[in-house]
Structure formats: C-alpha cells, structure tokens
Protein: Cold-shock protein DNA-binding protein
Amino acid sequence: MKLPLEITFRRMDSSPALEAKIREKAQKLERYHDHIMSCRVVVEAAHGQHRQGNLFQVRLDIKVPGKELAITRHHPKDHAHEDVYVALRDAFDAAARRLEECGRIERGEVKAGEGPPRGRVVSLDPDLDCGRIETPDGELIYFHRNSVLGGGFDSLEVGSEVRFSEEMGDKGLQASSVHPAGKG
Structure:
C-alpha cells in the first residue's frame, strides 16, 4: 500500500486487538491486487449506547489505479454482525472478491459476454425517489429514480432483479443506470 492504512471508529471505542485484526486483514488484501494505493476502514456501531445487541457496520474505501472501491457491510437484520469481528470478516471478504475482479479486468481475463452487474432491489423509498440494490456478494448500491431507465422506478418492487452500471458518487458507490432484468 502506498499510503498508510486509515482506521476510524464511530460510536464505539477502539481496541488494540481490533486495530491489529484490521491491519492484518488489510495487509492480506495485497494478495488480491498488486497496486493498492490506499485503504480506509470505518467501523461503526449502529447505536453507541447498546452493550448487547448492537450491530456493526464496516466500510472500506480502497483506491487502486483508475478506480475507487467502496465496500459496505451493514445488514440490519443479520445478528451475526453483533460481533464486530464477523462484520470485519464479511467486509474484507467482499473487498477481496472486488479486488480479484479488478485484477481480472485489468489483465483482460473477463469474458466479453458477462454483461453488466446484476443484483436485486432490497429497499425502495418512493418519498425520497431512491432505493438500494444488493449485489450477489452482499454489497449495497444506492440508486435514484432518475437512474432507472424507461421511467421504470414505479414498477420496481423489493426483490426485483436488475442490471446496473455503477460509478463513484459523492457518498460512495451508486448506480448510474438501472435496467429491470425482467422475469426469468
């Protein structure tokens, strides 16, 4: 890594053991991509007051040449993420998969017929004209009504399968275009 690892804790206390585990996992990411420029890890407790039953969210922002990867692990109903180490494992596993994919693309090993990424709609907020897509590896991607092609936002439902193109937005990864995948 060209720049030092950045670790931030929100609504929780840091611990030397947790920081050591993050550093160990971040160092292992270099197995999946040779040119990681920087890595920022944010570990956040959903509610800073709870001693038990608190869910943890882990976000990694990784920069490689020509691309910035944003990986967020937050599953509000996944009680496994009451353990910060499980949330870390899931986030770093997703980061490893994304870095491997970037490396394959850079080496030209991706099949031409693979097409755009797919996912399913996991939340819709018609009042705010937005929603979220979950990718097969569990990453959440924000999208706005205007991103849905053909004015199809109103026909989307939670669980709908979609194809999408992603880009880095002001607050992380977002879908720049969303295509309902249709039935089947």
Q: What stands out?
A: The chain has two domains: 6-106, 115-180.
